Amino acid sequence: MDLLESIQSTMDRLESELIQQLTSRVPVAFEIGAHIMNSGGKRIRPQLTVISARMGGYTGMDAIKLSGAIECIHTATLLHDDVVDYAETRRGRPAANTLWSNEMCVLGGDFILAKAFSALTSLKNLRILEIVSDTTARLSEGELFQMANIGNIDFSEEDYVQVITDKTAVLMEAACRCGSILGGLDSEKEEALSRFGFNLGVAFQMTDDLIDYRSDKETMGKNPGKDLEEGKLTLPLITALKIATQDEKTVVKEIVTSGCVSADDFMWVKKFIDRRCGIAETLVRSREYLVKAVDGLSIFEDSEEKRALIKISDKILHRTY
Questions:
Q1: Using one digit for the tens of pLDDT, what is the confidence trace for 238-297?
Q2: How far apart are the first and last CA of the chain?
Q3: Residue-level pLDDT at 3
Q4: Hey, what long-range contacts does 283-292 have (CB within 8 A, 24 or more apart)?
Q5: Domain assignment of residue 319, yes or no
Q6: In a domain, 318, yes or no
Q7: Which of 33, 76, 216, 242 could form a disulfide with 22 if both were Cys (CB 3.0 to 4.6 A apart)?
């Protein structure tokens, strides 16, 4: 069995672990969790966890438990995000909050978080528990900081990187770091894998925000321009605003604070972003982080695991949804 087959086998075992982690004596708690857990996620974070552990030669069951807990934390944040954002779809399926009440979805997310930390506690590794606990706090901080700046057209690139660091990159960083701890890697290699996860996470979110302006509902599984409608400034728009005229800034401000973006408004913003090279600049930034991610793996000798991480990086570069 080659590495990819082995990882796929591990991912199959992960699905069983996720079902186990979501088990509840209250049926609706399981139903909410299973709905969003089965909505087509790529399981990137569990893959990073498992591969990082394998970089140190570890292939035991704790990697499954750890990757399941990290995926549960990610899933809980998606549930909460959909409530906060009044989302209607998630990856082409009805968002959980359209099938259950907002209150039930918030509590469902809390339940999934609790189950994740129960699984983490079973690992009996205090360092891993501390890392994931700190990471979970930062996920909330990232969401709060972004919400505090809704409609703020002075939101800077530095502010944006802070948001996507806390909302996305830190969890991928934690997946790699905790996997490397399971693998028993030395501090230098642990740090290298952690930085890989961090840079990959920043690039992943930049690409995701880019797709919102250049894809369609059928491909994305959600309406394009959702960030704009919610008043969230992401990198394509931020970079375009850097060289915008005052009149352009005025129009953008009116649109992002309107709370209801029409098709014409969205098309105007897309053309403005293209005119001001917002897409091209975002691609440049994303590629810079991906290059840093891959370059950071130079400390490791060539292996199937290293090539698997590079392949994940390449997939992010060519994402279309």
A1: 999 999 999 999 999 999 998 788 899 999 999 999 999 999 999 999 999 999 999 999
A2: 30
A3: 64
A4: 283/210, 285/206, 285/235, 286/203, 286/206, 286/207, 286/210, 286/317, 287/203, 287/317, 289/199, 289/200, 289/202, 289/203, 289/206, 290/199, 290/200, 290/203, 290/316, 290/317, 292/195, 292/199
A5: no
A6: no
A7: 33
Q: State the residue for tokens 């891959």.
A: 294
Report in angstroms the alpha-carbon separations of 317 from 19, 61, 282, 288, 294.
31, 31, 12, 11, 12
Range of the domain at 218: 3-310
Q: Are 271 and 185 in contact (CB under 8 A)?
A: no
**At residue 90, what are phi and psi to the nearest 5 degrees?**
-140, 110
Residue 243's closest CA among 157, 145, 152?
A: 157
Q: Is 90 helix (H, G, I), strand (E, B) or coil?
A: strand
Q: Are 175 and 73 in contact (CB under 8 A)?
A: no
pTM: 0.91
Rounded mean pLDDT, 128-138:
97
DSSP 33-56: HHHHHTS----HHHHHHHHHHHHT
Domain count within the chain? 1
* Tokens found for residue 204: 């992943």
Distances (CA, A) of 206 to 4, 183, 189, 195, 235: 27, 30, 26, 17, 7
Neighbouring CB atoms inside 10 A of 264's CB total 9
Q: What percent of the chain has pLDDT over 70?
A: 93
Amino acid letter at 104? Answer: M
> Which residues have C-beta within 8 Å of that of residue 9, sequence separation ≥ 6?
1
CATH of the domain at 289: 1.10.600.10
- Does the residue 315 lie in any domain? no
